[in-house]
């Protein structure tokens, strides 16, 4: 649009030049000096007037473009309790990269944060805090096009809709007015749950190997072994009860999302973040939709589908609801129980579809109790309405934890296939996309 307006301006200048040439030719042919002088004066006056108009027009176009890109739907005359301007942020290091921007660890002055609505809701800062606080900041990349800007604003609007919840990664603030455009989120020190679980499994294995070696070589060194274990069992090492607490916290967060009519559509351990005190929060809202929207995915080249976390009705009928999120929660429970095991490790995405339709479900891991496995399998019921709700799951885990029952052990069989093969990428091949979107009435753009 802007380029076409500039082209129109160039055309005006060309027209003025042609008019000037025509007048000069006419005046010369008439050999009338007075006419020539008057003509030149008229042309100069017209040229000056046109230049002034064009300059004002260009200024208006440039201002409108800038205000649209950096202030779309924003009233800049008054502040909002969730604005955070970039000059208040001190960036540290890059920790991630998304489709339209990068994620950084950053520091923000506590006084700035204390004025935001989200900080007050979450008690993220208190009035007596004086030090800078650590946050995660998503930055819109330089040179982002209008579509990327719209997606960035959609994410901000979604986070505003979600609001505050204890087990959701909350938005602290944002800036859509000044460069660089940014979204400020809570920072979770221990990264995503999948890596956290796998790191924990590796440390447990190394601790067991150390204990076995030390005990065999010299029983007197058992005290040294205990010291090593105590050093390892810090906040990064978890207990079976911690695993149950993870399940409780995730089910509580998902219960909240369901209550505000949102469908996550990409619930997985990789999209759960772990804090310093072994608290977990749900993140990864790139595919999240309102439950009253058309939740049929239309294929596009950049769309990523988390096939091995998708319910049968999502795979075959393209229906995404809170119940399909419950199915994905069952896969998350499998990831938690196995300390980061890969679901369906020996099954390709294309092979998975007919297997699930035939009734196939993953076997019970050896370290998973039968009652816990029963909960997981209930989440994988082919009939969506026969699956438990997140409210029922939250209450169930509260009851399990209060009873102190042993539902999970750390007696892990490292030779199992789901420890040998990492989960395949959730990016779906074109072949599988064609299978997923063969249903009548579903348009594709593969």
From TrEMBL:
Membrane-spanning segments: 12-31, 37-54
GO molecular function: kinase activity
Gene that this polypeptide is encoded by: LOC100199224
Domain (Protein kinase) ranges: 89-401
SUPFAM superfamilies, per database record: Protein kinase-like (PK-like)
Keywords from the UniProt entry: Kinase, Membrane, Receptor, Transferase, Transmembrane, Transmembrane helix
PROSITE patterns: PROTEIN_KINASE_DOM, PROTEIN_KINASE_TYR
Designated name of the protein: Proto-oncogene tyrosine-protein kinase receptor Ret isoform X5
InterPro entries: Kinase-like_dom_sf, Prot_kinase_dom, RTK, Ser-Thr/Tyr_kinase_cat_dom, Tyr_kinase_AS
């Amino acid at each position: 649009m802007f380029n076409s307006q500039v082209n129109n301006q160039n055309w005006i200048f060309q027209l003025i030049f042609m008019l000037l040439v025509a007048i000069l030719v006419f005046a010369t042919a008439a050999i009338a000096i007075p006419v020539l002088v008057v003509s030149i004066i008229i042309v100069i006056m017209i040229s000056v007037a046109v230049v002034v108009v064009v300059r004002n027009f260009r200024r208006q176009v440039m201002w409108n473009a800038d205000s649209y890109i950096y202030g779309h739907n924003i009233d800049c005359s008054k502040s909002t309790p969730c604005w955070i301007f970039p000059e208040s942020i001190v960036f540290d290091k890059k920790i991630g990269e998304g489709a339209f921007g990068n994620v950084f660890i950053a520091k923000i002055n506590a006084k700035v944060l204390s004025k935001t609505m989200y900080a007050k809701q979450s008690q993220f800062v208190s009035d007596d805090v004086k030090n800078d606080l650590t946050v995660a900041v998503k930055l819109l990349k330089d040179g982002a096009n209008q579509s990327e800007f719209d997606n960035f604003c959609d994410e901000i609007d979604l986070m505003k809709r979600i609001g505050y919840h204890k087990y959701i990664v909350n938005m602290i603030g944002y800036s859509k007015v000044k460069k660089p455009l940014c979204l400020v989120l809570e920072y979770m020190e221990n990264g995503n749950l999948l890596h956290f679980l796998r790191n924990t499994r590796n440390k447990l294995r190394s601790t067991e190997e150390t204990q076995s070696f030390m005990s065999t070589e010299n029983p007197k060194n058992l005290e040294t072994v205990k010291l090593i274990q105590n050093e390892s069992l810090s906040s990064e090492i978890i207990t079976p009860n911690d695993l149950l607490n993870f399940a409780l916290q995730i089910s509580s967060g998902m219960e909240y999302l369901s209550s505000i009519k949102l469908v996550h559509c990409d619930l997985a351990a990789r999209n759960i973040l772990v804090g310093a005190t072994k608290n977990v929060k749900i993140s990864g809202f790139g595919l999240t939709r309102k439950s009253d929207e058309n939740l049929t995915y239309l294929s596009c080249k950049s769309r990523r589908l988390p096939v091995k976390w998708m319910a049968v009705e999502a795979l075959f009928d393209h229906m995404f609801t809170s119940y399909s999120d419950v199915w994905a929660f069952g896969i998350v429970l499998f990831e938690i129980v196995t300390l980061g095991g890969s679901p369906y490790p020996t099954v390709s995405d294309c092979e998975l579809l007919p297997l699930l339709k035939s009734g196939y479900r993953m076997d019970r891991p050896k370290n998973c109790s039968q009652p816990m496995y029963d909960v997981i399998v209930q989440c994988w019921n082919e009939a969506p309405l026969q699956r438990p709700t997140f409210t029922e799951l939250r209450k169930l885990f509260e009851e399990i934890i209060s009873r102190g029952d042993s539902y999970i052990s750390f007696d892990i069989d490292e030779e199992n296939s789901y420890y040998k093969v990492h989960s395949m990428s959730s990016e779906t091949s074109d072949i599988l996309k064609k299978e997923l979107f063969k249903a009548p009435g579903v348009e594709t753009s593969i």
